[in-house]
Amino acid sequence: MEGEFNSTTELHKLAPSFVPRPHAWGKFHVVNPVTHFFLCDFIDMENKMPDPVPFCARLAEIHLNSQSPTGQFGFAVPNCHGKILQSNDWDPNWTSFFTKLLVSFFQIEIGINGPRPVYEQAFEVIVKTVIPQLLDPLQADGRVLKPSLVHGDLWEENAAINLSTGEPVMFDASAFYGHHEYDLGPWRRKTIKFGRSYFNQYLRNVPPSEPVEQWDDRVRLYSLKFNIAHMIGWPGAPFVREEYALLTV
Q: What is the sign, positive or negative, of the torsion defined by CA atoms of 69, 74, 75, 77?
């Protein structure tokens, strides 16, 4: 709860009409079960996809206007993606940060769903070859990659329409300072409703990072973390491991 409170606080500072105002978090005085709480403004919401134009504009504003307090990638306190504790210690290198994040989720997934040699071999290729090929260029040849505040789990269940204003809202964040394109990773998943219109609108506000020709591959790489998270939350789902095989073809 502390992680979600801090995630929401940082996002709300940058977009107060887009993210609910957080008020408090804490622990109930009960021993069994251990129970925590998180309080934020109540927003009467409609559970439908928001208009991509204002939604992507608000998201882009957060990405463009945020500043990492350390100038590095990471977050000030531990937080969770769903029920999964994220590896978000400060790191000056995005390749290193993302690799640690992905590996930590992979290890949890293997522990839940069991080993599978082909899948594990494919993951080793991704870590040793694919990630450096796609992410190292972001901070090579004099390029500077700004750590931007990302929502961290941006899919349709964490976005809605404010019925009082008609404006989009987002919530239930697992934020950290990372590459802004990371927030587009969930949208690349096959089952997510954020489709091409959202990509197009976002790119009207924030063009692809250099090298531009690797943009789609980077977003596809980021989507794997969310596929693994799905496997952890819904053990036995088959498509995640197939995605790894496809990525290494």
A: negative
SS (H, E, C) the chain: CHHHHHHHHHHHHHCCCCCCCEEEEEECCCCCCCCEEEEECCCCEECCCCCHHHHHHHHHHHHHHCCCCCCCEECCCCCEECCEECCCCCECCHHHHHHHHHHHHHHHHHHHHCCCHHHHHHHHHHHHHHHHHHHHHHHCCCCCCCCEEECCCCCHHHEEEECCCCCEEECCCCCEEECHHHHHHHHHCCCCCCCHHHHHHHHHHCCCCCCHHHHHHHHHHHHHHHHHHHHHHCCCCCHHHHHHHHHCC
Task: Quote the pTM value.
Answer: 0.94
pLDDT in tens, 220-247: 999 999 999 988 988 876 666 666 555 5
139-194 pLDDT, tens digit per residue, is 999 999 999 999 999 999 999 999 999 999 999 999 999 999 999 999 998 889 99
Question: Cα–Cα distance between 83 and 112 in angstroms, integer?
Answer: 14
Task: Identify which of 79, 87, 78, 82 has the alpha carbon closest to the alpha carbon of residue 106.
Answer: 87
Q: Is the dihedral of CA 72, 78, 79, 85 positive or negative?
A: positive
Q: Are strands 80-81 and 159-162 parallel, antiparallel or unpaired?
A: unpaired
